[in-house]
Every structure is written in C-alpha cells, then in structure tokens.
Amino acid sequence: MRIVTWNINGVQVRTDRLLAFLESAQPDVLVLQELKAPTDLFPYDEVRAAGYEVAARGDGRWNGVAILSRVGLDDVRYDLPGQPQWDGVTEPRAVAATCNGVRVWGVYVPNGRTIDDPHYAYKLEWLAALRETAVAEIAAAPDRPWVVLGDFNVAPTDADVWDIAQFADSTHVTPAERAAVTALTDSGLVEVMPRALKYDVPFTFWDYRQLAFPKNTGMRIDLVFGSPTFAAAVTDAYVDREARKTGKKGTTPPSDHAPIVVDVSL
C-alpha cells in the first residue's frame, strides 16, 4: 500500500500536475494540503476518472486539505476534535479517513507567521490538539495502523534546514514548535523518515526564489508519524524530487513542496 503526502500549493492551477503524479506514482492514498480552492471547485471529475474517491474541504484561502483514495474512503472526518479556531473560524486544515484498514490523517499545520504574532500561539494550540487526537484514537484501537502526515511547518532539528543561521528569531525552528512535534513521538508515535536520495537530508520544501531548488537550500517541514503498528510495516519512504522539478517550457510551475512517498506492507 502506497500512501503519499503533498502540499500542492493550489489544486486548481496544478490539476495537470496532480493527474500526472497519480499516473506516475500510483499512490493508493494521497493526502493534499494547501488546496487554495473552495470545496466545490476541487477537480472531482478528473480525479474520480483517474480511479480515486475524494474527501476534500477548502475555503479558497491559503489552506484546504483532501484525501484521495483508490482503496476505500470510510469514516471520513473533517477537523481535529477540539481544533482551535482562528478569527472565530475552524479552518480546513485536517481530514481523516480509514483506507483499507489504515486510519489516515492529513494535516496542514498553521504557519505561525512570526514569534510575536497571535498565529504562533494558534499554531502551538493546533499541534497540541493534534497530539490529543493521536493519543485518543490510537488508545481506542491500538492494533489498527494509524498515520498522520502532511505539512507541519516545523523543521524538527537544525539539520532539517539548509542554514540554521538564516532562521534566527524565526518560526519553524523555535524550541516550542519543536517540542510540540517531539510530543508526538513522546506519546508513542514513530516518525517515518524518508531516505536520502540525492542529498544527505531529504528536504521537502524549497522557496521559489534565488534558485533554491537547484541549490538545495531547502527545509524538511513535511512529516510523517505513525503508530508502532504502522511504522513496523513501512518498507520504504522517500521524497519524490521529480515532482518538484520545473519541467518543460510552457508547463505548469511545480509546487514549492515535493511529495513524500511511504510504502507499507500490511
């Protein structure tokens, strides 16, 4: 079973890239973040024609999540239990479904903006709600494979950014954010680390500016955490750098994130 996470950075403008990825990578389950499209404008027809069921929700702003599955899409849930709100709104940042017996959560963690911005506190509250959700669901069904994957907007260690000196007083690398992610593993989850391919560190995000992707000045902020049952079944995990490449002249620009592909034998 192949499960993939990908911040697509606009599903409408990159529908062609999405369909090409479904064809080339053949994921059984694909979780998407940053749809940047309202729910009714997701490309349902095209994705269903490719053989996938869809659970999607977005409001057209810089968020939105979806699960695409060709192995079942049961017990769909939107939003974390107790998910904090932003400006009085429960943003579309989390979606879950059971796919071929695996409980899958796709998440798009708030950015945090700056350390002194209220959005930073919101981010920490959001990560705490995610931990509580993980603990409760795994305790309720400890033998069921369980995984959460997506754009966490946190680089877990200094090695997960190209130059930690560039991030002084910035979000994504603060002790509080890292502690919130570490709390997931402290609660019993296991991080599924993609293997390194071209470079030592499997970065997943590169800015569009200053030739960041060719220079590999990136960050590892897309993450995968599974229950022990899930993690024990992982046979491979890697970052699909091909999906981040620009492609031929005239083609749609790529997302600034690359997908993480996880293969499991269950």
Automatic annotation (TrEMBL):
Alphabetically ordered keywords of this record: Hydrolase, Magnesium, Metal-binding
Stored InterPro entries: AP_endonuc_1 (IPR004808), AP_endonuclease_F1_BS (IPR020847), Endo/exonu/phosph_ase_sf (IPR036691), Endo/exonuclease/phosphatase (IPR005135), ExoIII-like (IPR037493)
Major enzyme class: hydrolase
KW Magnesium (keyword) present: yes
Domain Endonuclease/exonuclease/phosphatase span(s) in chain numbering: 4-257
Cofactor(s) named in the record: Mg(2+)
EC number: 3.1.11.2
Family the entry assigns: Belongs to the DNA repair enzymes AP/ExoA family.
Protein name, per record: Exodeoxyribonuclease III
Organism lineage: Bacteria, Bacillati, Actinomycetota, Actinomycetes, Sporichthyales
